[in-house]
């Protein structure tokens, strides 16, 4: 059990969390833990693949390791989901807001590998989510939410534990993800000792 790890991918809307989770799935066969939400699905999102989309009532019936409100909707993840993913693979991923990432770091210690994703200019995030095709009303609600403003900054509680990845240039991001995965698989997992590509 101790050798099992969960890569917790966190950061603001549009920084590339889902893209990184997909990269880890495709290149390292790391299953992504699917979380629950009351947010309506976006254009291409599918039930049980992107999220377990819930009604407010069905959301309340589940048992959560942690749950948060984000830009007016509920999100939550369960121990069952984590253990189910660990049955399939020693390495798994989950995409969380920074409050969830802080909880995972606290509850799971060094079994949680925290990847904090950021970009040089937060304005690029608005363009990215528009290109992604998000509903414009929800984009406005999202980027003016206190949760968004909080998640563009690395939380103090994660300062010594998170790998900080700048996702401006995807080729550089991929190289850095590969370096981190090797670091973790070799049992080091010391963010401050790993020199990432600039
Ligand atoms: N704490 C927590 N955060 C979650 C969970 N599921 C998704 N999130 C986060 O909730 C935020 C909003 O997610 P979403 O509506 O899909 O928008 P996104 O930021 O564009 O991915 C993101 O930061 C997600 O990482 C969860 O179960 N717990
Ligand atoms: N390095 C990058 N440069 C440009 N666009 C990117 C980069 N990484 C991701 N994207 C795009 O930005 C949009 C938001 O990425 P996504 O992974 O959905 O973000 P998040 O899950 O953090 O909200 C997507 O359309 C994605 O293809």
TrEMBL record:
Report the SUPFAM superfamilies cross-referenced here: P-loop containing nucleoside triphosphate hydrolases
Tell me the Gene3D superfamilies matching this sequence: P-loop containing nucleotide triphosphate hydrolases
Give the matching InterPro entries: AAA+_ATPase, GK/Ca_channel_bsu, Guanylate_kin-like_dom, P-loop_NTPase
To which species is this protein native? Answer: Leuconostoc fallax
What the protein does? Essential for recycling GMP and indirectly, cGMP.
- UniProt-recorded name of the protein: Guanylate kinase-like domain-containing protein
Matches recorded under PANTHER family: GUANYLATE KINASE, GUANYLATE KINASE-RELATED
**Alphabetical keyword list:** Kinase, Transferase
Which family does this protein fall into?
A: Belongs to the guanylate kinase family.
* UniProt keyword Transmembrane, yes or no: no
Q: Which reaction does it catalyse?
A: GMP + ATP = GDP + ADP
Domain called Guanylate kinase-like: residue spans:
4-182
